[in-house]
Amino acid sequence: MTQEIRIKDAKDHVNEEVRIGAWLTDKRSSGKIAFLQLRDGSAFFQGVVLKNKVSEEVFQTAKEMRQETSMWLTGEIHEDSRSHFGYEIEVHDIEVVGESEDYPITPKEHGIEFLLDHRHLWLRSKRQFAIQQIRNEMVRATYEFFNKEGFIKMDPPILTGSAPEGTTELFETDYFDQKAYLSQSGQLYAEAGAMAYGKVFTFGPVFRAEKSKTRRHLTEFWMIEPEMAFTHQAESLKVQENYIAFLVQSVLDNCAYELKLIDRDPEILKRYTKTPYPQIRYDKAIEMLQEGGFDTKWGDDLGSPEETYLSEQFEQPVFVLNYPKAIKPFYMLPEEGRDDTYVCADLLAPEGYGEIIGGSERETDYDKLKAAIEAKGLDLSEYEWYLDLRKYGSVPHSGFGLGFERAITWICHLDHLRESIPFPRMINRLKP
Ligand code: 4AD
Ligand code: MG
User: Fold this and answer.
1) What is the pLDDT, as a whole number, of residue 166?
2) I need a surface site. Which of 22, 89, 281, 360 has the fewest CB within 10 A?
3) Cα 358 to ligand 1 centre (Å)
4) What own/partner pairs with CB < 8 Å and gap ≥ 24 does 29-33 have?
5) Which backbone phi and psi does 302 adopt, to 5 degrees?
């Protein structure tokens, strides 16, 4: 029996006869030879069909097959030093499994809206393949990192009654005879987890009814939210930079082929594996922006252009520390000696990518936290359980949230978050 393999394992089968289930992405042929561009979901490579080595029927099939036809192939693996991949298959037999006619995504250029309308098919193309493989490596590395650091994964609910990040961006839904919101952050539940298990992380979808149409916003995205008991902000910043450096190193170690497919220079990524990352205060950031010609004032939130500018001033990701209270959520710990700032930080990714992490030390005092909730005009009855965490053995604790698609977009050097997630949800897109 011929061994069935996946294309990525071709290197272990040089000069062997193998069988592969694959799809055709492109082809060209002349009278005596046909070149089939093939993919099987694990990699892309070329099949060579020589007229004088196969039956007339097989050669005819190879010449007539159309884009995205699926097939079983048998043939012999050879080295191919001219390709990215390094191997090809000399095809001996082809058994068509599913025909394909008029595949909408052809090798020519297509507009972005057309591609997004055909996202269910677009996912098959080389660049999208590479991005999703890198995403998968980052999922794997996330679990590895937090497991090795002694965190347990905890899954917060998605249907909730509370609004940790402010009430303007909530998706509301009927929940029997009451209202529920789709979770915009698992943080408050992660805090309960930290008090129960010391170190926890969440990793799941969150929802924000963002009206903004920027390249940095999705309405459904994935967040990783670690939360640590007995931990001050300085230690949390260390975890953050070690985690980001670990993600980048994992992609460098395990996705060399995919980085090549999307033309991402590994030498640039290597810079980000060195820690510590630089830190500046928000106060300083405002000065830098003003020197750079922005008319930003102390107290303003930093928008995409401001974050882009700041992140371009550094070779590495940069922490911006201690923002004004007025532009951050209620649960943060006020900074000692200042009455207008919190102990918090955003991590801005380099190359102009802007905020990828938001985090802080949390308020631990029952009365102060209660007052902060009231000051934001939030419904106290939704936060009674959260306030309980400050009643029974409250401890200093800190945590953060990494926007997973923002991190992928930066690591892959994409223009827009929409390519970092299999099926993006945006203000004007709910399909496919
Ligand atoms: O800064 P945010 O709003 O922080 C929180 O939700 C905290 N509860 C996190 C915590 O301390 N546990 O969101 C965290 C990150 C941002 O830094 C950004 O990377 C990403 O989530 N993010 C988005 N990503 C895609 N689309 C959006 N609309 C996003 N909004 C935030
Ligand atoms: Mg933020």
Assistant:
1) 75
2) 281
3) 6
4) 29/62, 29/63
5) -95, 120
Tell me which residue has its CA closest to atom 27 in ligand 1: 217
CA 71 to chain centre: 32
Give residue 1's pLDDT band: very low, low, confident or very high (50, 70, 90).
confident
Q: Whose C-alpha lies nearest to ligand 1, atom 1?
A: 358
Residue range 287-306: mean pLDDT, rounded:
96
404 closest CA partner among 224, 140, 134:
224
Give the whole-angstrom CA distance, residue 39 versus residue 6.
9
Rg (CA), the chain: 26
Question: Measured between alpha carbons, how far is 75 from 68 in angstroms, rounded to an integer?
Answer: 19
What is the tens place of the pLDDT at every residue in 297-321? 999 999 999 999 999 999 999 999 9
Mean pLDDT of the chain: 96
DSSP string, 209-248: ------TT--SEEEEEEEEEET--HHHHHHHHHHHHHHHH
| Residue 161 predicted with pLDDT over 90 | no
Task: List domains and CATH numbers for the chain.
Answer: 3-98 (2.40.50.140), 119-419 (3.30.930.10)
DSSP 103: -
- Closest-lying ligand 1 atom to the alpha carbon of residue 218: 26
52 by DSSP, 3-state: which?
helix
Task: Let me know how long the chain is.
Answer: 432
End-to-end CA distance of the chain: 41
Q: How much is the pLDDT for 163?
A: 75
pLDDT on residue 186: 96
Nearest protein Cα to ligand 1, atom 4: 358
Asked whether residue 104 carries a pLDDT value surpassing 80, the answer given is yes
Q: Please answer whether residues 166 and 329 qualify as being in contact, where contact means their C-beta atoms are separated by less than 8 angstroms.
A: yes
Report pTM. 0.97
Q: What is the CB < 6 Å shell around ligand 1?
A: 164-165, 185, 187, 208, 210, 217-218, 221, 223, 225, 355-360, 399-401, 403, 405-406, 417
